[in-house]
Amino acid sequence: MPHLEISDLITVTDPAGGTRLPVGRAAVVRRLVESGDLRGARIVAALPVDPGGVLDPVAVDRLMVGVHTELQRLSEELRIGERLAHVLGPLFTAIRASGHAGPLRLVDVGCGLGYLVRWLAATGALGPDVELVGVDLDAALVDEADRLARDEGLACRFVHGNAFDLPEAATVFVSTGVLHHFRGPALAEFFRAQAASPALAFCHYDIAATRLAPIGAWIFHRARMRHPLGRHDGVVSALRAHDDATLMRAAAVPGIRPLLYEPRGLANPFCTTLRPVLGVRPQLEEPLRLALGRASRRLVGPERLTGTAR
Amino acid sequence: MNPALPLAALGLIDAAFSGFRAFAGRDARIRKARAVARAASRGLAVGAALLLVPVLTALGVLLSVDDQTRTYAALSAGGTAFLLPLTLYAATVALSLTAYFVLPFRASTLAMVMGLGPLTLIRPLVVALACLNALADGGWTALLVGTVAGAAVLCVEPLVHRRWYAALPLPDLLGRARPA
Questions:
Q1: CA distance to partner chain B, nearest, from residue A195 (Å)
Q2: What sections of the sequence does the record tag as coiled-coil (chain A) (predicted)?
């Protein structure tokens, strides 16, 4: 049976126009029951609705902002910012070394509250020449990300909409915890959209799919998250995480060299809770390896992955 | 050995951490050291007040018995036994925290995954173990005081959360309330 995340079911946005679509509570409850997730169904059944049975969008927004705020705590504790900068720093160094002309722009796809973008802005980890943009289809999360950035005077911005429809081209697309939301052909389509853009690279972090991941997710979400929705979706995310081979297959799109950093077999699962799949234009691989230095041994292509996949 | 002082010290340190946990996950700003310090001091204040309850309980027990010397000895023995699992727990937390702050991000992830995360979850079990230890070495009076002390320590986080942080943050959606 498929594992369903409640947050995916209760916030539905038209991907083309970015408009919020009404969601009937009964339909969501039914889907969860049919998937065997009675606990998830109970959580949704407790959410407020209007007289027509449609989930109250304001209440859902409040819930989503609250859950994402709690979720940021995990990113802080697991030092996700540093983990990303560890790869993104060398990636931008490689792009600069390759003689790239024009502005450098990092676009965080599905940024949520924009923790990564705001952390990068606050620490200046990528240098002042990298413009930092967060994009999300959820207007409430984008509004809150923008408010938080303004509150701290951070040099970054947030856009409500589709990350691939921005007026200004991204140099590098990134994301954290987004990939497992794409199922089946949608995953390869996600990578193809980036390959078709002028972007030079992408670097998407997601939960490392190991047998320990769901247990670890349960412990952490139980210990750190208060709302049952956050606890529920945290464990389901770990169950839905794509394994290395699936990611590598999907990222193998024309014009892109797919790479995996710290794949299973080259990383201690207790030290690597998230790991990225990268895609770089072929001419960038060598400069990237050079910029990574000794750490480049952790960066593998599809030819090295055989035998380490789940 | 009189275990009162080390027990009080551990209780107050735990209360400060409880204050932090009560606040954690309620403020998504990047720079929030001041808010964290405020939360810890709130935990400390609430913890200091709550820890008076086991102190008063112990005093009440001592004042209500005929053989105060014997009861004091039992409470001391029970307190020392109560302290043992708590000290081991505190040492593990301190080790994990040191590793977390000192080591690079991969090793700090290990400290978090293997140490700090699960250690938060098992706090009630450690307190329960401490109570059983107190019962074994100090009898029922020690168990009474230990249970009250354990309950006081475990109550700090929910009380601080409910008093100061339960209604936060969601500023735009809740009328622009600011984290305290």
A1: 30
A2: none
Q: Is B116 on the interface with A (CB under 8 A)?
A: yes
CA end-to-end span of chain A: 20
Domain that residue B125 falls in: 4-165
Query: What token pair was written down for A116?
Result: 């990564």
Residues A100, A171 contacting (CB under 8 angstroms): yes
CA A224 to chain centre: 20
Tell whether the model's pLDDT for residue A111 goes beyond 90.
yes
Cα distance between residue B43 and residue B152, in whole Å: 12
Chain B CB contacts of A79 below 8 Å: 105, 108-109
Residue where a domain stops, chosen among A26, A44, A60: A60
Instruction: Check CB contact of B30 with chain A, cutoff 8 Å.
Output: yes
* Domain that residue A153 falls in: 64-305
Please check the confidence at residue A302 and state whether its pLDDT lies above 50. Answer: yes
- CA–CA dist B108, A214 (Å, integer): 20
> What residues contact A273, with CB distance under 8 A and at least 6 apart?
A78, A207, A208, A213, A216, B109, B113
Whether residue B173 and residue A140 make contact (CB cut-off 8 A), yes or no, is yes
Mean of pLDDT values over A290-307: 87
- Same domain for A101 and A248, yes or no, is yes
pLDDT at A75: 92
Same domain flag for A32 and A96: no
B31 contact residues in A (CB cutoff 8 A) = 122, 152
Q: How many domains does chain A have?
A: 2
Query: Which of B26, B28, B109 comes nearest A113 by C-beta?
Result: B28
Q: Are A153 and A46 members of one domain?
A: no
Chain A nearest-CA residue for B122: A223
Specify the higher pLDDT residue, A140 or B173: A140
Residue B147: CA count within 13 A, CB half-sphere:
9
Chain B partners of A70 at a C-beta cutoff of 8 Å?
25-26
Together in a domain, A83 and A46: no
Is there a domain that residue A310 lies in? Answer: no
Whether residue A109 is contained in a domain is answered as yes
Return mean pLDDT, chain A: 93
Q: Are residues A171 and A217 in the same domain?
A: yes
Chain A residues within 8 A (CB-CB) of chain B? 58, 61-62, 65-66, 68-70, 72-73, 77-79, 82-83, 86, 113, 115, 118-119, 122, 140, 143-144, 147-148, 151-152, 154, 216, 219-220, 222-226, 268, 270-273
End-to-end CA distance of chain B: 42
Write the ipTM: 0.88
